[in-house]
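Our consortium's second objective concerns turning raw sequence data into structural hypotheses that experimental partners can test. To show how far this objective has progressed, the report includes one record in full. It was chosen at random from the queue rather than selected for favorable results. The single chain below, 134 residues long, was entered without modification.
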Amino acid sequence: MADKNEFLLRIITPDRVFYENRVEMVEFNTTEGEIGVLPGHIPMTVIVKPGILHISEAEGEKKAALHAGFAEILPESATILAEIIEWPGEIDEDRAKSARERAEKRLSSKAPNTDIAKAETALQRALARIEVLK
């Protein structure tokens, strides 16, 4: 029998089912701000923004770097369709730091052809990777 203090969380990427389990809570960034989902949440869909995904299970907490996607939230479940999501063990710290430096350099340059939105997203992704490793 399902525990009323838990709901089913599914995280799916284009190449794998990243996570599927019953959880007590999940927190992540959206374009509208940070959201926390508990069992019985009102139905909604949101756009995912780069940041740290926090999963609270009965056994403890897990973290992952979540980069982009969409989420469907229902009272009994939540499904995140992620473009990219990584567990800490899947992240190359040196590569993430290099990506941060490149993004910061692009943002600080005054070159007229710099795509600011793309550079900001790259910086958010790099920072999420670095933060999840802490």
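The partners drew two points from this record. The CA atoms of residues 126 and 133 lie 11 Å apart. The mean pLDDT is 92. Both points have been shared with the crystallography group to help prioritize constructs.
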